[in-house]
Amino acid sequence: MILLVSLLIIGVIATYSGKIAEKFKLPALIGMMVLGIIIGPSFLNVVPNNTLEMAPIIKDIALVTVLFIAGLGISLSNIKQIGRPAILLSILPATLEGFAIAFLSMKFLGFTFIQGSILGFIIAAVSPAVLIPSMVSLIERKIGQDKAIPQMLLVGASADDTIAITLFTTFLGIYIQSNSGENISIATNIISIPITILISILLGFIVFKLSKSIIQNTDNKYLKTMIAFFICLSIRFIEKNLEIEILNSLLSIMVYGFFIRNYIKEDAKYILDNMNNIWKYGKLYLFTFVGMAVNPTLVGEYFFIGVIILTCSLFIRSIGVIMALTGTNLSKKEKLFCVIAYLPKATVQSAKASIPLQMGVLGGDVMQAIAILSVLITAPIGAIGINLTCEKLLHTESKIINIEEGLSYK
Q1: Residues in Cβ contact with 120 at an 8 Å cutoff, skipping those fewer than 6 apart
Q2: CA atoms 125, 132, 290, 20: torsion sign
Q3: pLDDT in tens, 140-185
Q4: Contact 346, 286 (CB under 8 A)
Q5: What is the rounded CA–CA span in Å between residue 21 and residue 273?
Q6: Conformational region of residue 184, where left means phi above 0, alpha means psi within -120 to 50, and beta covers everything else
Q7: Can you name the CATH fold of 27-44+53-399?
Q8: Where are the domains of the chain?
C-alpha cells in the first residue's frame, strides 16, 4: 500500500515539476530529474525504501516502453537512408571519447591506461533515457524527417551503448583478473561486440516471426498492445535475470518494434497509439528515478579536474560524430544538431558509476565522482540543447519525403 501511494505521489509531483520546467522553456525531463535528486537519498531522502528498491524495475519498464516506441517509429525506408552513418555513430563517438578519457585520466589523475579506460567507457555511453524520448518526440512532430535524422540517432545510440558497456566490462575484467593473476582475452571481448549486436537483431526478428500471427489474429486492439508489450518486457527480463552477456535486450526490443511497424502495419498504429499513452506515465518515473540515482555530493574535490576532462572528452566525442557523418548530405546545421543530441549522459553512468569502487578498483571513488559529474553537466546541456535547437537546425516537414530526396552520400 505504501508503495502504491508513494508512486502515485511521485507521479503527481513529477507531472508538476515537468510543467514548471517548461514554464522556464526547459525540457520537462529536467524538472523531473531535479525532483528526483531533491527527494532522493542524496538530499531529503523522503522516498520509502521499498519504492527505492522498485526503482530499477520501474526504470526498466519505462526504458522498454520508449525503446519499443522508437522501433515503431522507424520505417524500412529510414533504414535504407541511415544505414552507414548510423553504424559509424554507434562506433566512433563512444570509442574516441572512451580512449580520450583514458589518456586524460593518465595525465590529470595519475591513472594507469586500464584504470582510465574503465572510467572512459563508463562515461562514453550516450544516455538512452534522454536521447531516445527526445528523438521519438521529433519523429511525432515531423522534425528532421526529410533526412530521417532522429531515426539515425536512435539506431546509432542503441548500439553505442553496447560498445561502451562491453569495453567497460572488458577493461574492468582486465584490471580484476590482472590483480588475481588470471588472463583475459581482449580480442575475444572485442569480437563479442558485433556478435552481441547481431544476436540482438536476430532475437528481435525471431520474436516477431513467432508473435506475428498471434497479434494479427487478436481482435481487441488493446490486447494486441498488451501482448506486444509483454513480449518486450520478457526480452528485457531474460537478459537481466539470466545475465546473458552477448545480448542487448534494448536493441532487440527496438528491432521488434521495427518489424511490427513495417510488416503488420495495420496493427502497428493501434499499438503505437496505446504505447504512447503508457509512455505519458512511464516518463514521469524514468526521469525522476534517474535523478534519484544521482548523488551530487560525491563530486566534491574532483569538480574542476572533472570539468576539464569532460570538456576535452566531449570535444573529441563531437569530432567522432562529425567523422561519422562525413560523406552524407547533412548540412552544417544538421551535423551540429547531431553533435548536441549525442552529448547527454544519464542512465548508464548512474547505473555503472559505483561498480569500480564496489569491485575494489584503485581510484574507484574518483571514477564514481567524475561519472556522476558527467550526468550533472551533460544531461541538462543535451536535453536543453535538443529542445532549443531542433526547430532551428532541422527541417520541419508536413510529411516525410521520398527516400530519393532524403539522406544521401556525396
Answers
A1: 97, 98, 99, 100, 101, 102, 105, 313
A2: positive
A3: 899 999 999 999 999 898 888 888 988 998 898 888 877 765 566 6
A4: no
A5: 26
A6: beta
A7: Na+/H+ antiporter like fold (1.20.1530)
A8: 27-44+53-399
